[in-house]
Design a protein that fits this description.
It is a single chain. Helix 4 links the parallel strand 6 and strand 7. Strands 1-4-3-2-5-6-7-12 form an eight-stranded mixed beta sheet, with helices on both faces. It has a two-stranded parallel ribbon with strand order 8-11. The chain has ten helices and 14 strands. The protein is α/β, with parallel strands linked by helices. The chain folds into two domains: 220 residues, NAD(P)-binding Rossmann-like Domain (Rossmann fold, 3-Layer(aba) Sandwich); 116 residues, UDP-galactose 4-epimerase, domain 1. Helix 3 runs parallel beside helix 4. The radius of gyration is 20 Å and the shape is globular. The structure holds nicotinamide-adenine-dinucleotide and uridine-5'-diphosphate (UDP). Uridine-5'-diphosphate (UDP) binds next to helix 5 and strand 9.
Amino acid sequence: MGRVIKVLRLDTKSGRRRADRGRALVTGGAGFLGSHLCERLLGNGYEVIALDNFHTGKKYNLAGIERDAAFSCIKHDVVDALPQDLVVDEIYNLACPASPPHYQADPIHTFKTNVFGSINLLELARRHEAKIFQASTSEVYGDPLVHPQPEGYFGNVNTHGPRSCYDEGKRSAETLFYDYSRTYGIDVRVARIFNTYGPRMQPDDGRVVSNFIVQALRGDDITVYGSGSQTRSFCFVDDLIEGFIRLVNAPEAPQHPVNIGNPVEFTIMELAELVIDYTNSRSRIVHRPLPVDDPKQRKPDISFAREHLGWEPKVALAEGLAHTTAYFDALLGGRKFATSQRARTASVREVVAL
Ligand code: NAD
Ligand code: UDP
């Protein structure tokens, strides 16, 4: 049984009518994306319950909302049977470590999180006729042979490598979501998220944007894995959350997963140079071995989201890096950094590309 960290109560002080929109459960709510989503849902008038095992999530990610009367948090693992008394109108399933070092640390638990966790939450949705959202991933495309990746591409995934627990776990979860939808008529919404960054990533998270910024701020070597010619497309967290909300609120549930990401593509070497320039860092770039099965290129085709959700990202990489760098700068104790002309030029390039 989960441990409730704070019990829901009415907001008598402000007299505000809460839960206009019903009660939302956010699994992984103490994580990077989950904490931003909880904030957004509270702002939209929901009563919000975060459920998290605090594997990579942090209580301090919830500092801005923990006193909100419409917010509560349960410490619980989605692999285990859910608390019996949970009654919800909407479910957002974000529970799963997202960074390769974290999801590979206990691969069997990562797979269980995606499969047993999804089943537990889909059963909850079934019991309460709740709408359910799944945080899927661009990793379902594996090392893609089609570029950019549209939703109709089936992917190129290794079934037995070190990334497979995550990639195949997320693919299995997609299967479960659509099987529950066809079998029980549940309203499911599945977002395939492409690399997203922003404040509240952990400094030791291991993902590329947080690694590079923290290394640059500390003056440590910037660790580029492989030659750095591999590409990723980076989405700022606020844009991503807006995409989630539009997907969940779309009047018709799309009958397939929807790509949510920023289609502006960078090589990892370009990102390293941008971060060094942006932070005015004296860090050097060093090369480290490329992880097994590291995808060579990744860029979302977001035609469906543009056309059917009226969504596209608004925040250019340079602007998002400014917010993220300020966050890490404060977290690491504060160090002044200066923006170079080159970072500003990159921002112009992106606006043109969009
Ligand atoms: P994160 O690691 O910050 O957040 C994951 C949260 O889930 C953490 O709070 C963690 O403690 C919790 N969690 C993990 N396993 C759990 C379990 N078994 N039971 C309960 N809670 C559990 O990562 P994030 O970037 O915020 O990712 C959130 C979701 O979005 C994940 O499902 C991830 O796969 C997906 N996603 C993220 C990205 C990205 O770029 N950020 C890309 C693709 C998909
Ligand atoms: N990467 C890197 N240095 C780092 C961390 C990651 O060069 O310190 C590379 C990694 O090999 C991959 C890309 O950056 O090619 C994105 O890695 P991340 O772990 O952020 O996301 P994912 O590989 O899951 O897309």
